[in-house]
Amino acid sequence: MKYRRRPTHDVIIGNVPMGSNFPIRVQSMANKRTSDIKESVAQCIRILQSGADYVRFTVPSMSDVEAFATIKKEVLQQGYQTPIIADVHFNPEIAVSVAQFADKVRINPGNFGDPLHIIKLINICRERGVAIRIGVNHGSLSAKIMEKFGDTPAGMAESAMEYLRICREHQFDQVVVSMKASNVRVMIYATRMLVKMMEAEGMKFPLHLGVTEAGEGEDGRVKSAVGIGTLLADGIGDTIRVSLTEEPEAELPVAVKLLDYVQRLSAALPLPVDETGNRLLFDLFNFSRRKTRITGNLGGNFPPVVFGFDQLDEHIQFSHASFDEINDSLIHELSVQKMKILVYTPKYANVQAELRWLNLQLLHQECDAPVMIKLNLNEPDIEDFMIRAAADLGGSFIDGFGDGLWLTNSYPMPLEKIHSVALGILQACRARMSKTEYISCPSCGRTHFNLMDTLARIKAATSHLKGLKIGVMGCIVNGPGEMADADYGYVGAGKGKITLYKAKDVVKRGIPEEQALAELIALIKENGDWKEEVESPSP
Ligand code: SF4
Fold first, then answer.
1. What is the largest CA-CA distance in the chain?
2. DSSP type of residue 210
3. Buried-exposed string 335-344: b where 16+ CB fall within 10 A, e elsewhere
4. Predicted local confidence at residue 494, as pLDDT
5. Ligand 1 centre from 213 Cα, in Å?
6. Mode of pairing for the β-strands spanning 239-240 and 469-473
7. At what angle do helices 217-233 and 382-398 cross, to 10 degrees?
8. pLDDT at position 290, please?
9. Within 285-373, where are the H helices?
10. What is the reported pLDDT for 155?
11. Please, what's the b/e burial string for 127-139 (b: 16 or more CB within 10 A of its CB; e: otherwise)?
């Protein structure tokens, strides 16, 4: 088993080509109003100086096309030749118009109308040497797709395939494709399905990866690292965007750390084989948790535990092992001694591949002992620690492997921080919901309020509502769709006004911003989802 990139053809984006023949590219998106040229140029340069290979701007109206062209010209005049990308929703005419100036145009099949509109865009892009991104979002699938597939990973993949087939029919291969969702599981499953469908039809379009509305701080980093890191470890992904509700410049160091992570995955691992030497194959499309026996308060349908945070049944016996100690006799012992669990410490840098190897060995020998994964890191910096842990372990919990998580760091780090990262990884994988989940967009030229401050205020008031999902979105145009599976939504609806949602339904419109948090709390209370904050005893 050796790490290798999924082969793609090249896509030329300005002077920075993309695909498996090139390094994985990093990018970010400006969040100033595109019409505010001075602010947009200044922010674009800050993003470029932070290491972006591409910068994207929203182009919400025809009048922004001209602003986009001016921004691109001014950035170039200041000595930056970095490709600039236009992001277009709802209006194919804007896409065609901005393709006169952009290096790449992103469209969303969910709101592009008739897929055949893309032919006009293909023609202008071919003429000018401009690339296209078919950017599917979980929260904004077309009515046609929703009717046939619902908002499922299969629907997302099919939504992209419909456009890719048209591009291929018209011999246009300068296309990048993405499957984004705020639900990390959905994002990973949809991307895997798309890769499989493309392979079946002989397509090699490069992939753009990102978790939308990931939020900020630790949660945003952990969610992004789980989603992007899991796919990168399988060699999938040619450009990444870490999408945080923070200044766009803050996204780049996280993205660069994820790329550093991929650099470490090159060492080959032994192939998982059965006793006759036949290769054991991992099913990427199983999507269910490994069946384990209940052992004390671990395994079975118990959510995965966090060592040191959860109180464990005193009768559980730990059998510690790493790669070299896994053999038939240990697996037999784990199978027959019903209070034993395996505490497994990965040996290789490619933790995801190694844990799949272990999963296959246990499945093959029908061993149902629960497994606690123990990861010992050596990271002086907390951001490095959370990104490494999430990228290494997310894939396993996403694939349903792991009944417990034991994180350690050789550098001093507060235990609460380590436990919070462990719980964040499990939450990002939807393996265990132990925190309030915030689905917040990074804001863009469509946002009329300070999203970062608002999110901080909402978090301060609601972070004790464990398991509740609250969407905090900058605009009414894309926000409601993109917060997809939120229980409650706080969405900007023009200058100083907020609309509140209960799941997908509007419950109150046009609330003055200063009253909106109190109204949100009242709404949560009315629906019986509010709990008073209580001081919890230390575990
Ligand atoms: S939800 Fe609206 S404001 Fe937020 S990033 Fe998307 S388009 Fe921009």
1. 72
2. -
3. beeeebbbbb
4. 85
5. 9
6. unpaired
7. 50
8. 95
9. 328-336, 351-364
10. 97
11. eeebbbbbbbbbb
Counting Cβ atoms within 10 Å, is residue 146 exposed (0-12), middle (13-18) or buried (19+)?
middle
* Contact between residue 131 and residue 13 where contact means Cβ atoms under 8 Å apart: yes
Summarize the confidence of residues 424-429 as an average pLDDT: 97
The closest residue, in CA terms, to atom 6 on ligand 1 is: 478
pLDDT value, residue 267: 63
Reported as a single tens digit per residue, the pLDDT across 366-378 is 999 999 999 999 9
Question: For ligand 1, what atom is nearest to the CA of residue 444?
Answer: 8
- Ligand 1: residue of 29, 246, 482 to mutate (most ligand atoms within 8 A of CB) is 482
Round to whole Å and give the CA distance between 455 and 474. 10
**pLDDT bracket for residue 94 (50, 70, 90):** very high
Residue 430 Cα distances to 71, 227, 288, 400, 410, angstroms: 41, 12, 12, 10, 28
Residues 392 and 291: their CA atoms lie apart, in Å, by 22
CB count in 10 Å sphere of residue 495: 8
| Nearest alpha carbon to residue 55 among 32, 89, 38 | 32
Q: Report d(CA 103, CA 128) in Å as an integer.
A: 9
pLDDT in tens, 441-469: 888 878 888 998 999 999 999 999 998 99
Contact 181, 137 (CB under 8 A): yes
Confidence of residue 273 (pLDDT cuts 50, 70, 90): confident
Q: Is the CB of 481 under 6 A from ligand 1?
A: no
95-104, 338-347, 492-501: the lowest-pLDDT one: 492-501
Please give the distance of CA 497 from its chain centroid, rounded to a whole number. Answer: 29
Count of all residues that appear for the chain in the document = 539
Taking the C-alpha atoms of residue 283 and residue 287, their distance in angstroms, rounded to an integer, is 9
Distance CA 293, CA 300 (A): 5
DSSP β-bridge partners for residue 406: 374
Nearest-CA residue for ligand 1 atom 1 is 479
* CB count in 10 Å sphere of residue 303: 14
Q: Which residues contact 199 (CB under 8 A, 6 or more apart)?
A: none
Mean pLDDT to the nearest integer, 187-212: 97
pLDDT of residue 275 exceeding 90:
no
Running DSSP on this structure, what letter comes out for residue 22?
Answer: S
